[in-house]
């Protein structure tokens, strides 16, 4: 279950006193109604892979707080950055009936108050978007209500719902940006036959991505990958590394990377630019990092795990990459030491 709606109706909301504890039958029912009204417009798990818990707290009541919860929930979800398919509003309709000249007459009432609910013959809650109804609840004290009366009440409810939606749109009409403090969960789809490449032998590749970015990665059998991170930049970095493996693009000469030294050899250092893509930083190029001085041992300059800014200088016919270090202007102008 991805969406949970808790509805609280404390005694003080109607000017009463009483015990505040576990939810009562009424609160559970109203929460279920508000939840059902919003579920049809929630984004898919692929679009928004979060679980959502919404709490509606009634501070004062003289009408339908369940429909008020629907309206307030739409506003709060949009404010939190949830990309709803459409805003939802709710309205409570009432009914007064009496016999006039031997004929039963009915009058539908829009947005009933507490007294109209208590004295009236119907409590008809209607929630929905501007296009369709998402939830209904009907309580009546009558033995039956003519279909034409219900149809009229539904039509009257639509007019009221559209008015409320217009007022809500003036406050917020599009999802806001998510808070910088909110954890990021994003998803990426890869071909199923590339799952093994992303995981790597004994989990080497996926562990490297998680270590480098700090993100948590979950892979589903259908190729959907969920990336969780404490910041958007970390999540995007992990997504980029995954795409580089599953949807590889050939690097081009002149592209720059912040690489990681993964292996040291006598003739240079191998630098990982992205998962599955390494390049050689030759010892002759490593000299530039130390101002052009002779380098006897590569390990005196670079260590495994060290980050180094590099640029692709050459790509041979077999796709192997030759790298050069990227130096700041001061370091570049100071080159030309011992040879």
Descriptive keywords:
single chain, 339 residues, alpha+beta, Ribosomal Protein S5, domain 2, Ribosomal Protein S8, Chain: A, domain 1, OB fold (Dihydrolipoamide Acetyltransferase, E2P), 3 domains, five-stranded mixed β-barrel, four-stranded antiparallel beta sheet, 9 helices, elongated
Major beta sheet summary: 5 strands, mixed, barrel
Mean pLDDT: 87
Helix and strand succession?
EHEHEEHEEHEHHEEHEEEHEEH
Radius of gyration: 32 Å
- By DSSP, the count of extended strands is 14
| CATH-defined topology of the largest domain | Ribosomal Protein S5, domain 2
Chart the SSEs and their pairings.
Layout: E1 3-8, H1 25-38, E2 52-57, H2 65-80, E3 89-100, E4 103-110, H3 114-119, E5 122-128, E6 133-140, H4 147-171, E7 184-189, H5 195-199, H6 204-213, E8 216-219, E9 224-229, H7 232-246, E10 256-265, E11 268-274, E12 277-282, H8 283-286, E13 307-315, E14 321-325, H9 329-333
Parallel strand pairs: 1-2, 12-14
Antiparallel strand pairs: 3-4, 3-5, 5-6, 7-9, 8-9, 10-11, 10-13, 11-12, 13-14
Helix pairs in contact: 1-2, 6-7
Task: Give an overview in words.
With 339 residues, this protein is an alpha+beta fold. The protein has three domains: 3-171, 2-Layer Sandwich (Ribosomal Protein S5, domain 2); 184-246, K Homology domain, type 1 (Ribosomal Protein S8, Chain: A, domain 1), CATH 3.30.1370; 256-333, OB fold (Dihydrolipoamide Acetyltransferase, E2P). Helix content is 29%, strand content 29%. The protein has helices at residues 25-38, 65-80, 114-119, 147-171, 195-199, 204-213, 232-246, 283-286, 329-333; strands at residues 3-8, 52-57, 89-100, 103-110, 122-128, 133-140, 184-189, 216-219, 224-229, 256-265, 268-274, 277-282, 307-315, 321-325. Helix 6 runs antiparallel to helix 7 (232-246). The longest helix is centred in the middle third of the chain and has 25 residues, at 147-171. The relative contact order is 0.08. Mean pLDDT is 87; it is low at 330-339.
